[in-house]
Amino acid sequence: MGAKLGQKERFNVRRHPQLAVKALDECPNTPHGASTMIMQHHGNNLGEGFPRFPHSTISPHAALFMVVEEFVINYLYRQWSVPEILDHIKHRLKYDKFKPAIEVLEMTCHEHMRRV
Fold first, then answer.
1. Is residue 40 pLDDT above 90, yes or no?
2. What is the extent of the structural domain holding 103?
């Protein structure tokens, strides 16, 4: 978390899953599981903070969200290559819960790279 953020901003960054779910709960026809996915996308069931090790009890959708988010952050902001990102994700999210999402991401990336 950046040192440039004030206390209120740091609080909001740490709790944005809870704040987003609260807003989403006010929307009619929200897809089933969307709130759970958002609440758990930091790797825990409480939607708070950034745990060092993701909990094994998060939903498969939250695991997918975390894999995709990790890819996007490293691609857009760190400007890493796709192979670097895939290696990083496999190391950082090495738990069984993430393997299906990582395998699909790898397959998609390799398929795209063959066509380019």
1. no
2. 7-115
